[in-house]
TrEMBL record:
Organism: Erwinia sorbitola
InterPro entries tied to this protein: AhpD-like (IPR029032)
Protein known as: Oxidoreductase
Gene3D superfamilies per the UniProt record, alphabetical: AhpD-like
Upper classification of the organism: Bacteria, Pseudomonadati, Pseudomonadota, Gammaproteobacteria, Enterobacterales
Top-level taxonomic group: Bacteria
Length: 382
């Protein structure tokens, strides 16, 4: 992503975060109008084997595209209980894209944000946007930094429970999208660009994994008596899904997003049941510090004790094929913008097909989303 230093400022800014005149165009305005707003044009560039894989995974990709349209519609109207504007949503998406460092995402969300009217210049509006941005940045970069005080700060600037759930879903979705896009880039052997000198956050400490506790929501879950028809429909569909049974009543504050996520998880059910994919998801959950997700994914894996200690410990005791898998999952989780064909090749050398590698990428990406919902909206291991 191109960065610029403007005279009189002592910081680097993305062009959408400066006070330049509103008519200034983004670096790549065409990025806002790409037809496939999930893979952002990569499907049109793919050919041969990868195109066949996309066809096989069509239900999951369609669910992902539908989720994009739901979270980032062309326009939207706020209400007393749903105060997030389209600017809030896409600004938060751009923040997450910048955290992941995936250039294609940064171009897209910057181009979409550019023409939107921002909030007024009052102190209250500035403080509200600052808290939204900080929450999105922390949840995207290091989920373990989020605690009850982080959620309270959002409440203090006027965000409702549905707002906080929607914001967390947006951060989760873009974190998921970034890792799918980065993984497809690597499968296509496309060159990647990343900013040198970026510090990668450390993995979560092992303490909570060695003595896990039950997950508790950080906000009051939806009460049945207040549930709207779309929320009840989402709960009916999503509660039987293992990944959502703990948090469904909390996530139901945004019933449409919950239903969309449930459709995606349902489409990935067969993929996530494979031992290689559950191991990849467990690695992601271990790095991100999501105890409840880790316990679910690693429950039947013989590497669970080693993973509880650290990813490096698991690498030291795993066989060669699983070492290659763990390495890719860890790289995609920690630093998606640096993933390239060299990270894919060890898996191919170990006998994994491109279809199996894509399933592993989807597992890491979807676990990244689930981790952020569980970390951002609840606590465990205390």
């Amino acid at each position: 992503m191109e960065q610029r230093r403007f005279t009189g400022n002592n910081h680097w800014y993305h062009e959408t975060q400066t006070s330049l005149p509103a008519h200034r165009a983004p670096l790549m305005p065409e990025a806002a109008n790409v037809e496939d707003r999930f893979l952002l044009g990569l499907a049109q560039q793919a050919g041969g084997e990868l195109n066949t894989i996309f066809q096989q995974m069509q239900p999951a990709l369609l669910a992902s595209r539908d989720l994009y349209q739901l979270l980032f519609p062309p326009e939207m109207t706020t209400t007393l209980s749903h105060t997030l504007t389209l600017y809030d949503r896409i600004s938060s998406a751009l923040t997450v894209a910048q955290v992941t460092g995936v250039q294609r995402l940064c171009n897209h969300y910057a181009a979409r944000l550019n023409p939107l009217p921002g909030p007024d210049s009052s102190r209250e509006s500035n403080h509200r946007l600052t808290q939204i941005t900080e929450y999105a940045r922390q949840l995207a970069s290091q989920p373990t930094l989020i605690d009850a005080l982080s959620v309270q700060r959002l409440d203090d600037v006027g965000l409702s429970a549905p707002d906080i759930i929607s914001l967390s879903q947006i951060v989760g979705f873009v974190s998921y999208q970034a890792r799918v896009v980065a993984g497809v880039h690597a499968l296509m052997a496309l060159p990647v660009r990343w900013m040198p000198g970026v510090t990668i956050p450390p993995d979560a400490v092992s303490d909570n994994f060695l003595s896990p506790q039950a997950w508790c929501p950080a906000l009051p879950p939806l009460e049945l008596r207040y549930a709207a028809p779309d929320q009840l429909e989402a709960l009916t569909f999503c509660q039987p899904l293992t990944e959502l049974e703990e948090g469904a009543w909390l996530f139901a504050h945004d019933g449409k997003a919950l239903y969309g996520l449930g459709r995606l998880i349902d489409a990935l059910e067969e993929v996530r049941s494979r031992s290689s994919c559950s191991l990849a998801a467990a690695v992601t959950s271990r790095i991100n510090g999501s105890v409840s997700c880790f316990e679910r994914y690693a429950a039947k894996n013989d590497l669970r004790p080693a993973l509880q200690e650290s990813v490096e410990q698991a690498l030291s005791v795993a066989d060669s094929p699983r070492q290659a898998l763990i390495s890719l999952a860890a790289q995609l989780t920690r630093s998606p913008e640096r993933v390239n064909a060299a990270h894919i090749q060890p898996l191919k050398d170990a006998g994994f097909s491109s279809a199996q590698i894509f399933e592993i990428i989807l597992s890491v990406a979807s676990a990244s989303w689930g981790n952020r919902l569980m970390q951002g909206l609840g606590t465990s291991g205390e």
